[in-house]
Structures are given as C-alpha cells and as structure tokens.
C-alpha cells in the first residue's frame, strides 16, 4: 500500500515536471573553408527565446545589439580573425528561435575556437556545435562550463573525435538526467520496485544511453 502511494506521487511529479523542465542549450553550425589567405568561416548561432528569458540577461530596449554583443564576445576564433560582414539577426516566431549569422576570415591555419557565452548566467548551459570543413562533416562538439575549447587539429583523428563526441553526448545525457526532476522521479520509482541489482543497473544504463541518443538525434 505504501509503495503504491509513493509510486502514484512520483508519477504525478513526473507528469507535472515534464512541462516545466527545459534544457539550457544553444546551437551553432560552423562552416570552415580553406582559402588562399587562410580560412573563411560562416557561423549560424541559435537559441530559444524561452532559454534567453530564463537566463535573466536583463536586456534593455536595445536588446538586439546587446544579444549580438554577448554572442560575438563569447565566440573566440583567434586574434588573427576579422569580421567580414555585419552580423544578421533573425527571429522566428514559428520555432521560437533567435538566430545570428556572421562570416569571418582567419589567417591561422590551425583554428582554435573558444566558446564562453552564458556560462556565468547558468553554469549548466551547454552549446552544441556542428562543423563542416571543406564541405566534409566532422564530429560535433559539446561546449560546457568545464570544456570550452575546440581545436581543428583534433579533427585529423576521426576515430578519436567520434569517440569524444559520443562521450560528450553520454555525459550530457547523464547530467541532464541528474538535473531533471522528471528523470529523478523515474529513477526513484525504479528503486521502489525492489528490482535486483543487476536488472536495476541494466535499466538505468539503458535509460542513460537512450536519453543520450535522443539528445544526439535532436540535432
């Protein structure tokens, strides 16, 4: 009887928190092309307006320029890079996303990208970047508060980069579970079922990997 009551309570918590739990994430598509004078880079940065609101940036009436400054100042491509055109801001009411587009040119042959945006406002914020180098897709990079650097040289080892990308998604899925009340309620409900240890580990591992796969497929 007691277990039934607890399970009912946990199911209620699970269903109610599904509507309130949202990841703090931003995304970018980065295209890199080798040119005679170095590299040309095109960046498309996107974030949901609801995520911006929860970050509590205290933007003023001049929010568009302040948003541009925050994003551009948070992306570091190196001192030998210059902006080719004024960034273009696009807001989609149908998807709820704000996107920023801008091209730059860098002299350096070995590109290193540092992402610093919004970690001060939310240490759990993650930024998922996809890369295309000379029209070839390379493994994605998940920037976190503790891992803010991507180096082009690392893409030369495709196997290593793919493993790192897989590890990033597993880590993201695990952290997302720990920060989501709905997922914690599900795990606590499993404990109340009095499953043996081996079966419990298999279910939790499968749940974590499945959640990580879902996050990856969303990109």
Description:
By secondary structure, the chain is an alpha+beta fold. It folds into 2 domains: 2-20 and 180-218, no CATH class; 25-156, no CATH class. Helix content is 41%, strand content 30%. It has 6 helices and 10 strands. Strands 1, 2, 4, 5, 6, 8 and 9 form a 7-stranded mixed β-sheet that branches. A hairpin with a 2-residue loop joins strand 8 (126-133) and strand 9 (136-143). The radius of gyration is 20 Å and the shape is globular. Residues 1-21 have low confidence and may be disordered.
Essential attributes:
single chain; about 220 residues; alpha+beta; 2 domains; about 40% helix; about 30% strand; globular; disordered N terminus
Task: Describe, in short, the structure shown.
This protein has 219 residues and is of the alpha+beta class. 41% of the residues lie in helices and 30% in strands.
Task: Summarize the helices and strands and which ones pair or pack.
Blueprint: H1 2-17, E1 25-35, E2 38-48, H2 49-55, H3 63-74, E3 75-76, E4 81-83, E5 88-92, E6 97-106, E7 112-115, E8 126-133, E9 136-143, E10 149-151, H4 158-178, H5 181-192, H6 197-218
Parallel strand pairs: 1-8
Antiparallel strand pairs: 1-2, 2-6, 3-7, 4-6, 5-6, 7-10, 8-9
């Amino acid at each position: 009887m007691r277990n039934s009551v607890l399970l009912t309570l946990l199911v209620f918590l699970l269903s109610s928190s599904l509507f309130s739990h949202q990841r703090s994430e931003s995304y970018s598509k980065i295209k890199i092309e080798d040119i005679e004078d170095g590299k040309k880079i095109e960046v498309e940065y996107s974030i949901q307006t609801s995520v911006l609101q929860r970050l509590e940036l205290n933007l003023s009436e001049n929010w568009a320029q302040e948003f541009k400054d925050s994003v551009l100042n948070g992306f570091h491509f190196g001192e030998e890079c210059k902006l080719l055109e004024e960034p273009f801001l696009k807001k989609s009411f149908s998807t709820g996303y704000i996107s920023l587009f801008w091209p730059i040119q860098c002299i350096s042959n070995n590109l290193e990208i540092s992402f610093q945006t919004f970690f001060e406002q939310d240490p759990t914020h993650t930024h998922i970047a996809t890369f295309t180098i000379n029209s070839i897709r390379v493994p994605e990079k998940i920037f976190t508060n503790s891992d803010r650097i991507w180096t082009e040289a690392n893409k030369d080892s495709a196997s290593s980069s793919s493993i790192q990308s897989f590890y990033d998604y597993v880590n993201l899925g695990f952290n997302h579970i720990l920060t989501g009340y709905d997922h914690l309620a599900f795990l606590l409900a499993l404990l109340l079922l009095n499953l043996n240890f081996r079966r419990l580990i298999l279910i939790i591992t499968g749940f974590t990997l499945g959640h990580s796969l879902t996050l990856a497929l969303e990109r």
